[in-house]
Structure formats: structure tokens, C-alpha cells
Amino acid sequence: MKRLFSFLTGVSVLAGSAAYALPEQGHINMVPPASALAEEVHFFHDGILLPIITGICLLVLALLIFIMARFNSRANPTPSKNSHNTMLEVVWTGVPILILLVIALPSFELLFKEDVTPDGKQVVERGDGQTVDFVFPNDFPPSRMVARRDHLQVMLDTGAERRTLKYKTDYTVDGWGEPDLVVSLNEPAPVGASVILRGGRSTQNVAGCPMAKRYFDGCEKEVVLAPTMTLKVTGRQWNWSYGYPDYGDFEIFSNMLPEEEASEELYRFEVDNRVILPVGETIRVTTTASDVIHSWALPNFAVKIDAVPGRINETWIRAEQEGVYYGQCSEICGVNHAFMPIAVEFVSRPAFEAWIDGQRSLAGLDPMFETDSVKLAQADDAGAAAE
Ligand SMILES: [Cu+2]
Asked: Which residue of 137, 259, 280, 331 has the fewest CB atoms within a 10 Å radius of its CB?
């Protein structure tokens, strides 16, 4: 029943305690989305493609049944001699063209969002109890400048809570599309509160927006900030290596855990060294390969990108929640193709920095951050994480 329910709802909510979701025996829909972009990909499938294909199947079935009943030789002994009907032919050419347009337009938008790395920018100002005007430097290239209200997000963070302000009700803006954008709050920002101005053309629906809302009154939009780091993924026969060019360009190798070390559920998913990334931040992912074509895939993020020797492909990911997410090489690359899984763990910023420093010291580099070293959940407690 639970399975049926999760199928019907398009598995559109993140499973509570299980931070990741693996493919399940007998499960027929996609694994739950872990990012707002993956939710949009799932909405495209569950909300646009599925209704269309269901409608087409039912229509064709109904026509077949109607024709069999109405035009069989008993019911219709003397058949019509017509061979053309201009109106009918225009309709059966025109309607499929319209259906393809309905599919193509949102799919172009999705392809663009997946392909183009976000460039959103954030400015944080401090309130002093008097100032109402805050300036957002709109220094993007002309085609990417903040020019409309949905390119800008204004938030007020008092430390205790963060609130997204409403355009017109809470603030007005002067200078859309001009080099300096002036945001005027209707009330001065409280002393010590942070005024967060986030601007850019890379916008997406906020995570967790249910399908019904997407259809009927739309979801709240948010500006996606530019990447804070790059992850360099290299496919090899037969493992993955991950470089961190922003943090000293050290590289880690990720090999599948052998059967006797992995739990039954995680065998062929778990690796000895997981990729560690900070949660809630945009991460640029570049992929390449050292020998043959591989494909780096993370189903929870709706990411599948080829790793091709001699060239670099680029995409981006952002996780909404901490957790471990699994994928597998998705381009047949040789005998051990099935044995080069992908395991990505999203952790908090401090845990990420501690891990970076740990890896830097392994690589003989000085620490970059001054944090206490945090012992991270690595492959050895994977069994516990699966509970
Ligand atoms: Cu491969």
C-alpha cells in the first residue's frame, strides 16, 4: 500500500529519516528527488509526460474499440468508399504538433537549467534600525542582469529566524536592469539583523513544492547562487577519482566496497572513499575520463553526465539535505562497469572544512580552515546509516 501510495504521489517528498533512497525491489517510480531541480525533472515526467501518454493511450484505445464495434462487417456491411478527408488530415497532423510543443517548451527550459551553471550573487548588509535603502550591485553581463522582481530575493535574518520579504508589501525596488539596484524596505531593518539581497537570473522553484501547487498557483521562486566550489570527476576503468581544485587540487579515489565489507543493501553502491560536499551550496561538477567513456549518475539529483576522455562536461548540483546519495556508472565501459558505484555525502559547512583539512594533511598540505577535526561518517558505518 505504501508502495502504491508513493507511486501515486510521484514520490515527491524527501523520505523523512532515510537521508538517501536507493532503488527498491518492486518499486516502479523514480527515486525521491534530493534537489529542487530534480523535483522539476520529476514534475516534467509525472505532471506533463505521464498525463499526455495516458491520454493518448486511452484515446487510441477508445477509437479502436469504437471502430471495431461500429465498422465491423456485420454492423457495417457496405463500407464507405471515401479515401481522403482534408479536415481530418489537418487535425491529425496539427494536434501531434501541438502536443510536441507542449512537451518541448518545458523540456528546453529544464535542459537549460541543468546545463547552465547558476550565477546568482548575494549581498549581506547589517541593519542599524534606521537605514531603509540597500544597494545591490547589478554587475552581471547585460544579458544576465537583474531586471524583474523574480530575479531578486530579499530576506531578513534576525538570527532567530529568516524571513523572505514580499515585493511591494515589504520593500520596493528602484533601477531594475541598471548597474545599481536600490532596494527600499518599508520599515528600517532592525539593529543587528542581516538584510540578505540575492539576485540573478538563475531561478528555480523552491524545494518541496507539491505537484498540485505547481499546476494551480505556482511555486515560490528562489535565486540560485553561483557555485562555491568545483568537483572534478574522472572516470577510470574501474573506479572514480574526485579532485578538489579549490582546496589544493588533491584527489581522492573511490573504489567499490567488496561484498564482504558492504551491507547487503549497499553492496555495489558503497565505496571506500565517499565524495564529501557541503550541503545547501551550488557545486560545479566537471566530468572527464582517463580511458573510455563512463557516465557519472546520481538519480536523486536527476544527474547523468558522460565522462569522456579528452573533454570536459559540466553540470551542477545542490543538495537540500545532508545525507549520502548513491549512483552508478551509467555508460557501459568494460567488464567491471557494474562495479564502479558513486557515493556522495553532503555534510554541513564545518564538517566539510574539517574533512578538507584532513585530506589536505594526507596530501602534505597545510590546513586551510581553523576548525576542530570532526570525525566523519565514512564507509565503515554505512550499515548503521542504512537502518
Ligand atoms: Cu564506467
From this structure: 259
Q: Are strands 229-236 and 283-289 parallel, antiparallel or unpaired?
A: parallel
Residue-wise pLDDT tens digits, 335-361: 999 999 999 999 999 999 999 999 999
287: amino acid identity, one letter: T
Cell of 29: 517510480
Residue in 86, 171, 79, 178 with CA at minimum distance from that of residue 134: 171
Question: Distance, CA 31 to ligand 1 centroid (Å)?
Answer: 21
CA of 317 to the centre of ligand 1 (A): 20
Ligand 1 centroid to Cα of residue 288, in Å, is: 11
Tell me the residue range of the domain where 191 lies: 121-201
**What is this structure's pTM?**
0.82
The rounded Å distance from CA 331 to ligand 1 centre is 6
Residue 12 pLDDT exceeds 60: no
- What's the number of domains the chain is made of? 3
CA of 321 to the centre of ligand 1 (A): 27
Distance from Cα 236 to the centre of ligand 1, integer Å: 7
Residue 238 is part of a domain; what is its CATH number?
Answer: 2.60.40.420
Q: How close is the Cα of 27 to the center of ligand 1, in Å?
A: 25
Other residues' Cβ atoms within 10 Å of the Cβ of residue 201: 19
Mean pLDDT of the chain: 87
110 plus 141 within the same structural domain: no
Report which residue type is found at 283: I
